């Protein structure tokens, strides 16, 4: 998970799985699967053999763009689009969803996202651009994905790839509630990973949409942490 999250947060996610009884084997590959339904043997490249009733293979995905061969569109890991989700070199062809690789002005690079929230937001932008060709709107999303695992709600917003988190709220190795926040080189929040902490997620999503400076955001987040750590009082 270090491709999508920093090493410290990825380690916390792995510890979460292990605490739930999941055995994680890292740095090994699969060389073969033999047997029959319900009675399988998985052989690893270090010679280890694992017994399994069911095997799930997760090897990633590639965009289904082969049918566009010969269309005249630029197809490289999806349909290459400009910042308006318009296929490059065209004026009336747009792409939406997993197959669209648009130019993200914030990152200065082409991006392809595989999540339904991206497809929904992208479709709204493209609908506007089709209806208003003289007033095109750049697609500049604040990425948002989530997953429920072992009673944890893991929410990821913005860009969390690359270096380690700038700030950690809570202890990822000990707490069931924590947040990892990532700042960019200009002092703005660029992404965050939040576990079981809705108030922090609300503030971070708002900060990303509005381009709030990190120095302005951090005091409010610290106040949330302090309020959460105060002992409860009873009347």
From TrEMBL:
Transmembrane segments: none annotated. Residues 145-213 form the Reductase C-terminal domain. It comes from the Bacteria. Coiled coil: none annotated. Residues 3-123 form the FAD/NAD(P)-binding domain. The keyword Oxidoreductase applies. Its cofactor is FAD. Keywords: FAD, Flavoprotein, Oxidoreductase. This is FAD-dependent oxidoreductase.
């Amino acid at each position: 998970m270090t491709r999508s999250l920093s090493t410290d947060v990825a380690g916390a996610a792995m510890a979460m799985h292990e605490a739930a009884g999941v055995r994680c084997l890292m740095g090994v590959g699969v060389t073969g699967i033999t047997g029959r339904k319900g009675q399988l043997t998985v052989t690893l490249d270090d010679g280890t053999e694992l017994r399994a009733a069911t095997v799930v293979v997760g090897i990633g995905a590639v965009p289904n763009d082969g049918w566009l061969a010969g269309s005249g569109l630029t197809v490289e890991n999806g349909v290459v689009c400009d910042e308006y989700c318009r296929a490059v070199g065209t004026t009336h062809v747009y792409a939406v969803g997993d197959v669209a690789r648009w130019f993200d002005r914030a990152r200065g690079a082409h991006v392809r996202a595989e999540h339904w929230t991206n497809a929904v937001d992208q479709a709204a932008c493209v609908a506007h651009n089709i209806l208003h060709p003289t007033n095109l709107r750049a697609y500049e999303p604040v990425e948002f994905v989530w997953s429920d695992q072992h009673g944890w709600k893991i929410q990821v917003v913005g860009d969390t790839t690359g270096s380690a988190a700038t700030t950690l709220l809570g202890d990822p190795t000990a707490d069931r509630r924590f947040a990892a926040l990532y700042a960019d080189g200009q002092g703005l929040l660029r992404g965050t990973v939040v576990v079981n902490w809705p108030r922090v997620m609300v503030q971070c999503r708002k900060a990303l949409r509005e381009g709030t400076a990190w120095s302005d955001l951090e005091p409010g987040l610290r106040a949330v942490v302090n309020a959460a750590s105060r002992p409860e009082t009873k009347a």
